[in-house]
Amino acid sequence: MVPACPCTACGEPLPDAPGATVLACDACGTAHHGRPAARRLVDPDWAALPPKATARYADDTPDAVIVPDAVVPFNVERREARRLLRERARRRWFAPAAFRRVDQSPSFRAAYLPYWVWSAWTHSRYRAARGDVHWTQTAQGARVRAMLWRPAAGAVDRAFADIAVPATVLLEARMLADLMRDWDLGAAVPFAPGRLEGRWVQRYDLEPEVGLALAKARMAAEVEREVRERIGGDAQHVPVIDTAYTGLSYRLVLLPVWLASYPHRGRRRMVAVHGETGRVVAGRPWSGPKLAAALAIAAIVASIMFFSLG
Predict the structure, then answer these.
(1) What distance separates the 2 farthest-apart alpha carbons in the chain?
(2) Model-level pTM?
(3) Tens of pLDDT along 25-51?
(4) Mind telling me which residue stretches traverse the membrane in this protein (predicted)?
């Protein structure tokens, strides 16, 4: 049995409310915004994929969910994660006091975040135009810059592997994207419930077919970049790229992270320690009183120097 979905602020289990788009934590009141299951995308490539095994997160959860395929183990243990948080906090002189004690937060916990990991081969045919700068000279001797356009067409074949898409919207998108930069998906091991012992598991709330749309967008951007490189020239106009996907597959992979939160300006702010590399991912909170005091001191010093030089 997979653990219940925890609150990302305080860690307490969230109430079960199938179909709800907003859940309020009973313990701390934090609102969690999700995506309604009714808004699933209809994609022929998705419809052609075989179904995956499902299970229930808890005995009282009516909806079955996809069972994870793999887990990336923790390389950073609890004591080391606390030390890394403490060092980061101490380097932020103008951070609020709550942030400087974030390593002692009661919300500090080991968690697994869900990601949809996609692979595919793509065959893309494009119709485009190549632009080359062309200089002409007027009768008066002035040089005029123009763009000479020529048609271009062709095909691009690509193999994509391990396109990871966050499967939750309950954490800040910037933090999820930052964490995703250096996870080693090659270190993933087959999923077994025992591997989750003592860890929180963030249940996915972004459905896999939505993840497919996001993965295709990333693949399309890579294909377009290669198309423009092949066309060359000083400018490219690429109105049409038709892409077919084969060998499409996906996995639900749980990736390790240490999470903690602290109060700041009336809300909870998250801090994360990468479970493999130990990299700390946090915003840049500023303490208003500390900044005001520093500016006041700077103004006093500037005044003293001004009058002493005068």
Answers:
(1) 85
(2) 0.73
(3) 766 666 655 544 444 446 899 999 998
(4) 291-309
